[in-house]
Each structure stands twice: as C-alpha cells, then as structure tokens.
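G., the chain you wanted modeled:
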Amino acid sequence: MTLPAELAADVTLADIVAGAGWDAKIAPCGPDDIAAMERSAATIARRLDADEPIYGLTQGFGPLVWFEAESELEQGRSLIAHLATAQGRPLSPEVCRLVVWLRLNSMRKGYSAVTPEFWQKLADLWNRGFTPVIPQDGTVSASGDLQPLAHAALAYTGFGDAWVRDEAGRWDTRPAERVLAELVGEPLDWPVREALAFVNGTGVGLAAAIVNQRSALRLTRAVAVLTGRLGHLLQANPEHFQPGLGIARGQLGQLVAADWIRAELDGRARRGADRPLQEPYSLRCGPQVLGAVLDQVDFAGQVLRREANGVTDNPITFEDEVLHGGNFHAMPVGFASEQTGLAVHMTAYLAERQLGLVLSPETNGGLPPMLTPRPGRGAGLAGVQISATSFVSKIRQLVQPASLTTLPTNGWNQDHVPMALNSATGVAEALDLGWLVVGSLAVGLAQLTHLLGHRPEAAGPWRALAELSAPLEADRPLGGEVRAARDLLADHAAVLLARDGDR
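Predicted structure as tokens:
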C-alpha cells in the first residue's frame, strides 16, 4: 500500500516536538491549505442546505444523535461545556503545547470543515504563547480525548487556566481569562464545527505518547552508554558486543545497541584475567535487550508519526462526501504507548540488574559489597539499590496495559474504548522512575571508578559524574547525587542522539 504523500513525508517525531516548542511558530495557512479548508466547509454547507443529517451539527452528541439540534452556536458551547469533567494533575506545558499543535495540524488539512479564519485565530494565539492547562484524567480516548480537549477549548473562552512562562523559562499557571485579556483583549467563542473538530481527536494521548517515546529513546541511549562504561571498568569480555553477533542474528536494533555500547569501550579492550568468559546476562545480553527495546520504541514512533500527520475527528469530508466514522478511536496511540511502557520497564530492569552486578563482590571483581570502602562501619550504596528496586516494581505497576482495563461507557455508544491517555500518563510516571534507575546506576559506576583508582576520562560525562559523586569516605545522603547523575546522563543521551541523527 502506498501511503498518501503527507504520511510518507520524512518528518520525524523529533521534528514534530521541536516544531511545537515554546519558541516555535506555526506557519499561516497557504493557498492550498485555504482552498482545501474552504472545499471542506462548502461540502458541509451543501449537505446542510439539503437538510441531510450531520452528527453534531443537525444532531446531538453521542447517544443523543437521535435528537435534532437547532443552534450551531449553542451546540458548540454545549459540546465543550458538558465535557469539562476532566480531573487530576495538569499535563506538562510541553505536552499541552504539543496537544494544540497537533489539533491545528489536523484541522488545516481540509477534512474537518474548519474555516481558515477561525484556524488562524487559534494559531495566532499559540504563536503568542497561549497554552491551555489540560488535566490528565477523565478520558477513555474513544471519541478522541474529549474531556481534556474540552478543557483546552474552554481555556480559549476564558474558562480555566493557562500556562505562562517567564524570561528565565519557569512555568506557572494563571487564569485563562487574564492571559487572553493581555494577548487579544477578549475570549473566543467556538462554532460547533470548529469545536467538534478540536475535541474529537486523539491529540492529548498522542502528545503525551510522543513525549514519552522521545524520553524512552533517550533512556535506551543512556543505558547503552552505562552498559559500555560498566564493561570497560570491569574489563568484561568485549566479544559480547561485537557486530558479528548482530549480523548473524539479523536484528537491526541489536546492531545499533551494540555499536552504542562499543563506543564506550577501549578499542584495544581485552577480557580481564579475573573476568569470566561469559558475563551475567545483564551485561552480556545488553545489545540483545536494548536492541529489542530500540526496535519496539522505533516502531511505536512510526505509528505515532503517522497519527500526528493524520486527521482524527468525526465526521470528516472526503472528495465532496461527508463521512461518519471512528478515526477518533485512539487504539493505535494506545498500543504504541503500551509498547513504549513495556520497553521502558525492560530498560530500567536491565539497569537495575547491572547495579546489582556492580554492588556484589561475586560479580564486581571482589570489591566490597555495596561499594563501601568501610564495610561494617559504612553501608555504601545499599539505600540506592533498595530504592532502585522499588522504582522498578512501581514501573511494573504503571505500565500494565491500559487496554486490558477498558470499560464500556456513554450509554450504548462508546462500547469499545482504548484508554490511551490513561496508558500515556502511566508511562510518563514510569519514565520518571526509569530515569532515577539510570541515575542510580550512574552513581554506582562513579563509585566503582573511585574504588578501582581510575582517573575519569575528559570525554563524555565521566569526569563530571566523578565530580558530582565523590568517593564515599563516609556514608552520606545520595538522593541528590542520583538526581544529578540522572540529569547528566539524560543530557548526554540527547546530545548523542542529535549527533547521530535523531530517530
């Protein structure tokens, strides 16, 4: 099957995230965009003139589709008002800005009967920084993410809150009405066609899933770096990471992961005299585990990229027809999100097991348990390992597939739902914990470096890591060092991915 040009375009998720950043701007509609949007609006107008029923315009919403509606403007207000039932913590400003970007990208394609004039009002506000605060709970992601998107739409009417950002880059929230007054003087009113196109879409779960996928990719890169560093410090058998293994197997992710790991090894590396021919699986199978993770994260990214370039509202116009369907059902996003979550767990689990390897005299080359230089008087990294174990356990709870928990709702109407945003918010929490596991392993490697008497190399993050986690001459609270190491490795992984050509 040949994909439409807009889906086949070589636009990466990295490009999409960058295009939705704080300093980015949405380009105005060009002549082709305007023509497509006007054709779509004209198709709807012809159907209305012919007294043909159209969901949400002449008919009610959801199970109320059997009942006629009288006022389009009243319908627009009613749609976003009755759905304002989302709850919980707000999604991050990064996700909230991406949500609106995704909806605007969809609405300009000429399938949604959105007028160019109204679209431009929304785009102008986005370009000036207007970012609705969107709560994360309360959608089943079946008719799109109705509830959180309704809160985003209501922010444009002056209801709820908006994110604001100061010159130092700090985010805060303020009443949307005040922010709009400063930007445009008055709030907007939603016509029903634009309201329906905005809230009937997968944009919230999609935005969160995209941000998660990018973080999961960085997490995988960071653990590959740490795996290579661990192999280097322990003088593990370098055969484990040779490209021949990946070539023989034929798995692309494994080849890439092994290459990432080898980059941290001394090119002249030989197995140490006191190291086994075959290391424990957490080290020996690093390329296979991280390669499998990378393949799944990449596949999830392909699905999410297509969704980000698609149209997910209902109804749509297509070649002068009005089509009622289910593009707003977020199953592709839900599965991609769940796969990302499973990959995050496996990456964090690998890192936690490598930390266990580092802290045990049986596998760390006979160094003291918990890498304390004062066994008995000191406990070293015992607390760090216990917390990392807890993090992995919590990750397992958070990444249980949300699609296994679906419940029918909305009368007889939404009887099959994907729970995609529930999945994405769980994966986001799991990623926060996964990065703490990365920080924990990095602190372990810093202490291993000190005990081995190695002088950290200037290249890479190793000298900075050694400085932020100094030798354990006496026990001290290490939570801050774990967080600092997490941030260091996250930044380093981002630099490496950008250098190699972000996926």
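Strands lie at 87-90, 131-132, 135-137, 161-165, 171-175, 316-318, 321-323.

Shout if anything looks off.
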